[in-house]
Amino acid sequence: MKKYGWSYLLIALSVLIGAIAYPYLPDQMPMHWNIHGKVDGYWDKQYAAFFPPVLMIVLMALFIFMPRIDPKKENYKKFSGSYTIFITIMNVFFLLLQSMTISYGLGVNIDISLVVNLGIGLLFIVLGNYLPRIKHNYFIGVRTPWTLANEKTWRKTHQLSGKLFVMAGILLVAISFLPGIYKFTGMLVVVLSTVLIATIASYVFFNRYKNVDNN
Predict the structure, then answer these.
(1) Which end of the chain has the smaller Cβ count within 10 Å, N or C?
(2) What's the rounded Cα separation, in Å, for the pair 103 and 59?
(3) Residue 24: is it exposed, middle or buried by C-beta count within 10 angstroms (0-12/13-18/19+)?
(4) Domain DUF1648, which positions (predicted)?
């Protein structure tokens, strides 16, 4: 499918990066860091090098398959461009994580927590700009019992959530430059607060619009 061309290219690039770097990687690769930015988990290099592209392939298959079984599958046509961008951005994020861990394994001095927080913050900002465009469906978006039950609740919740995600992303970028423990705590507070506010808002919107025509 041509519309997923960029995602296929990113997956191919991920495989290529893993294959090129593999001979030079240490047998045990750092793959997990604690809240202080210290390595506390290792993987065998074959898993570390090729897990990201495998994950990207599995997720890509799911993203292509999900619209076909969604009861609201006709709605995907209404936000096809945003859906494609969403998939592409997710693949960019995983490619960034792979490049970062491989670089670290090769001895490049990288502040992992800084890069991850910046990446998540930018991801939130981009997703926030596209959330309001996502139409009613059962797989992508802010899926609570109330958004799924009422299309107007879905629309209002996603309009608000788009703004929340952008604000959260900006905060996450700012938090990225704090010391380790504050960075982790700040990220946790921002992400959980965003999810909680969006969930509560969906309940409020549902009770406001449950007797109103979805259109």
Answers:
(1) C
(2) 24
(3) exposed
(4) 9-57
Q: Are 56 and 94 in contact (CB under 8 A)?
A: yes
Q: Which amino acid is residue 135, in one-letter code?
A: K
Q: Dmax over Cα atoms in the chain, in whole Å?
A: 63
d(CA 68, CA 30): 38
Cβ neighbours for 175, distance < 8 A, ≥ 6 positions apart: 117, 121, 182, 183, 186, 187, 190
Distance CA 206, CA 210 (A): 5
What is residue 44's three-state secondary structure? strand
- Asked if residue 139 lies in contact with residue 68, where contact means CB atoms within 8 angstroms, the answer is no
pLDDT class of 214 with cuts at 50, 70, 90: low
Domain boundaries, the chain: 1-110, 137-215
Residue 167 DSSP SS3: helix
Residues 6+ apart with CB under 8 A from 187: 117, 120, 172, 175
CA distances to 132, 147, 204 from 212, in Å: 20, 14, 14
Distance CA 13, CA 17 (A): 6
CB burial class (10 A; 0-12, 13-18, 19+) of residue 1?
Answer: exposed
